[in-house]
Amino acid sequence: MDYIQKIVDAVFSVLLKFAGLLLIAMVAIVFTNVVLRYVFNSGIHWSEEVVLVIVVWFTFIAFALGVKEDLHISINILPKKTPSAIVTAVVFFKYAVEIFCGGILFVYGIKLTRAGTSSVLPATGLSNAVSYLIVPISAVFVVLFAMLHSRKKHKKQRSLDNNSDLQGGLS
C-alpha cells in the first residue's frame, strides 16, 4: 500500500505543478493581451480562446486535487454530535458519491471529447476535443483519489473496531 501511496503522491505533485503552470500561463497571456490592446492598440487574436481552454483544464485539475486533499465543502458540526457508526456511514456514502460522479464524468467526458473532434476552435484551429479531454482524465483521478480515501478510512475504522474489541475483552 505504501508503494501505491507513493505513486499517488507523485501524480498529485505533477498535477499540482501542472495546475500552477496553467495558472501562470493564463495570467501571462491575459496580461500580455491587455498591454498589447491598451498600449499598442493590437492584441493576440487567439488569447481568449486559449485562456478559456486553460480555465477549463485548471478547473477540472483543481477538482481532482480537491478530492485528493478532501478540500470540498463539508459540515463538521454534525460528526461531533452524531454516533460514530452514522458518521462512518455518511463518510462512506460521500466517497461513493464521489466515485459515482467521477464515473459519470468519465463516461460523458469521453462522449463530449469524441463529439468535440468534429469541430475546431476558430482562432487556433485546434480540435475542440482539446477543451474537453481533461474531463475524463480528471474523472479517473477523482475516482482513484476517492477510492484511496475510502480504503484508508475503512482500514482506520477496522483498526478502531479491533482496538475496541480488545479493550472490551480486557475489562
Write structural notes for this entry.
This protein has 6 helices and no strands. It is mainly alpha-helical and 171 residues long. The longest helix has 39 residues. The radius of gyration is 22 Å and the shape is elongated.
Summary keywords:
171 residues, mainly alpha, 6 helices, elongated
Determine the number of helices (DSSP H or I, runs of at least 4 residues).
Answer: 6
User: What's the gyration radius in Å?
Assistant: 22 Å
**Rough shape?**
elongated
Mean pLDDT over all positions: 87
Total E-strand runs: 0
Please provide the ordered H/E string of secondary-structure elements: HHHHHH
> Which sheet architecture does the biggest sheet show?
none
Q: Which regions are unreliable across 5 or more consecutive residues at pLDDT < 50?
A: none
Fraction in beta strands: under 5%
Structural class: mainly alpha
Fraction of residues in H or I helices: over 70%
